[in-house]
Amino acid sequence: KANCFVFLPNSFTPNNDGLNDLFGPLNSYGLTDLRFKVFNRYGLAIFQSNSPLSSWDGTFKNEKQPTGLYIWTMEYTDVFSKKKMLQRGTVFLIR
Q1: Phi, psi of 47 (to 5 degrees)
Q2: CA-based, 20 to 30 A from 34: which of 27, 46, 55, 69?
Q3: Which are the contacts of 87, defined by CB distance < 8 A and separation ≥ 6?
Q4: Where are the beta strands (DSSP E) in 9-83?
């Protein structure tokens, strides 16, 4: 039986070297109704998307965000099980 396991890395380096420049869901082919958000340490949502193909580039309002820990939440529906899923975690932005 198929299921959807969406993975998000625990760090990224948005330095335009072509490696780990973006942060977003990987292996997201089996989900719908996505609500993905990234928050700064003050609780401000600095990135949000409803597209599994969209990723955060480490900026907010065209300003590079500082090195540090950011919180993310992701809600979606697994297309195989039809279950609503919630994942939460942290990501470390490295400059």
Answers
A1: -155, 140
A2: 69
A3: 6, 8, 73, 74, 75
A4: 11-12, 31-39, 45-49, 59-60, 63-64, 68-78
